[in-house]
Amino acid sequence: MTCGSSTSVPWSRAVLGSRWRCWTLKKEEEVESLESIKTLLSPCFLCQHRPRDGNIVHGRTAHLVACFRCARMLKKKRSPCPVCRKEIKMVIRTFMG
Ligand SMILES: [Zn+2]
Ligand SMILES: [Zn+2]
Fold first, then answer.
1. Residue 50 and residue 27: Cα distance in Å, rounded?
2. CA of residue 74 to ligand 2 center, whole Å
3. Which numbered ligand comes closest to the C-alpha of 64?
4. Cβ contact 70:46 at 8 Å
5. Which of 31, 67, 70, 80 could cysteine-pair with 50, CB 3.0–4.6 Å?
6. What is the pLDDT of residues 28-76, one digit of tens each?
């Protein structure tokens, strides 16, 4: 008795299926790449809602971690930069171009 390891399953016939199936698979791929862009441009660390467009400026450097509204709120409260703890000199609205 031998354990047959070469089990030829006709997968190819099932996978090749119809053209419609191929199209849906491609669509899923596209959605996945969009999701990765979303994680790259993750929202404000404070409200987790609005996009990161409030640049927290300290000296010659700045940290872009919060939305404009939350960044301004931090400045108003005299809180330091949430990333490096430097004093916030100003908050500027950042536009992606
Ligand atoms: Zn925010
Ligand atoms: Zn900082």
1. 27
2. 12
3. 2
4. yes
5. 67
6. 666 777 766 655 568 999 999 999 999 999 999 999 999 999 999 999 9
